[in-house]
């Protein structure tokens, strides 16, 4: 009973947050135009409060990931604007911690009910993850077609170990973070978010994702031919 009450409280907290976030129009503040307009102000504050600003940035990024705020791209650009290429370190810390917390929340809130409803399917997924977790996790992180928050939640429903989820997330998101942070350092030349990633860059990410599946493909082919 107590666990149920805690779950309801957490879910209601998310609902209230999203109602305020979209109802009061806070989402409109998280855009490229506002980032450009406040670039000089941010830089001036950072110059005199570097450690404080870096700490606050990590906390804000962490909260944005946990609360599923659709602002990760703008925040990653902000990391480049505020800290230069070093911002990728702060982005990676905030994103990894936020993803890990989302993973744990999903496991706490939904794993039991998911196991009751989709027990057989989850057993198949868990079996495959137990054998090839690293390859699958890198594929999910490197390939941009899989939304970050969806991966966090869905993996929370499996029995994958927390430490493996954490370190593969930290490494798997690094290439994308580098691209966006570098784009943030070139903010003046950006006209829209669509300018950041070209089809060629997207293809590189897809290729890296598919490359991470190569050990699984080889293993399956060996089983098939033996």
Written account of the structure:
The protein is an all-alpha fold and 226 residues long. The protein has one domain. Helices cover 80% and strands 0% of the residues. The protein is built from twelve helices and no strands. The chain is globular.
List keywords for this structure.
mainly alpha, globular, 12 helices, 226 residues
What are the segments in which pLDDT stays under 50 over at least 5 consecutive residues?
Answer: none
Major pleated sheet = none
Shape: globular
Element order, helices and strands? Answer: HHHHHHHHHHHH
Gyration radius (Cα, Å) is: 19 Å
Distance between the termini: 52 Å
Residue share in helices? Answer: over 70%
Mean of pLDDT: 84
Q: Please report the total strand number as a whole number.
A: 0
The number of helical runs is 12
Q: Classify the beta-strand content into a percent band.
A: under 5%
- Compute the number of structural domains: 1
Q: Which class do the helix and strand fractions yield?
A: mainly alpha
Give me the secondary-structure topology.
Layout: H1 2-23, H2 32-37, H3 39-48, H4 50-66, H5 72-83, H6 87-117, H7 119-142, H8 148-156, H9 162-172, H10 174-185, H11 199-212, H12 214-225
Précis, in short:
By secondary structure, the protein is an all-alpha fold. The protein has helices spanning 2-23, 32-37, 39-48, 50-66, 72-83, 87-117, 119-142, 148-156, 162-172, 174-185, 199-212, 214-225.
